[in-house]
Specification:
Length: 171
């Protein structure tokens, strides 16, 4: 599946960095959420893994996604609604994340807002993956990221197109 479901580069990153706190913007049917959590719990006990997911949950309900995540034994919270509204509010109380996957709205306005809010949840080692960099709005958002503060690597994921990995520059 090119756009939905598990993404090997996310699971590789989770395994390598032993990620415990994962945020996904754009959950859809929760299959990628489940895949990321199942990867994380190969390294740490399920109750130490935290997953935070944001979506309208209009195609697939938060109950359905919650049932999938509940079976893994991880801690999770699902935020229902437009991320233009839900994310600015949530970042006030959420912990810093080890991995953030931005895969929600593809317009510049939404992608920009999702990135700007994700920045509040980055520690020095956080990896922020941005899906669908080929979309004009997403591409513009990625192009605007200041390279003096952030390292931005764009790579090609087979069948998916371009993905960006953003990390804080530290030194
Ligand atoms: C490409 S799908 C996500 C796929 C999922 N990350 C995966 O890998 O399987 C995009 C999702 O973003 C959600 N979405 C788009 N714009 C949004 C917005 N402004 N606020 C909340 N969710 C949004 C849609 O409801 C849809 O479920």
């Amino acid at each position: 599946m090119p756009w939905y479901g598990s993404h090997s580069y996310l699971n590789e990153y989770i395994s390598e960095k032993k990620c415990k706190k994962i945020l996904e913007i754009g959950v859809y049917n929760g299959e990628n959420a489940k895949s990321m959590v199942e990867t994380a719990i190969q390294n740490v006990p399920p109750q130490e893994v935290e997953y935070y997911g944001f979506d309208f949950f209009s195609y697939h309900s938060s109950d359905l996604v919650g049932r999938k995540l509940g079976k893994t034994g991880c801690k999770f919270r699902l935020f229902e609604g437009n991320t233009l509204d839900t994310l600015p509010e949530a970042v006030k109380t959420l912990p810093d994340m080890d991995l953030i996957f931005i895969d929600g709205g593809k317009s510049f306005a939404v992608a920009e807002s999702d990135w700007e809010n994700s920045k509040f949840l980055m520690h020095d080692g956080t990896g922020v993956f941005v899906h669908n960099v080929g979309f004009s709005g997403v591409r513009r958002m990625v192009e605007n990221i200041p390279r003096d503060k952030y390292q931005v690597k764009i790579f090609h994921a087979p069948s998916e197109g371009s993905v960006a990995l953003i990390k804080k520059k530290t030194n």
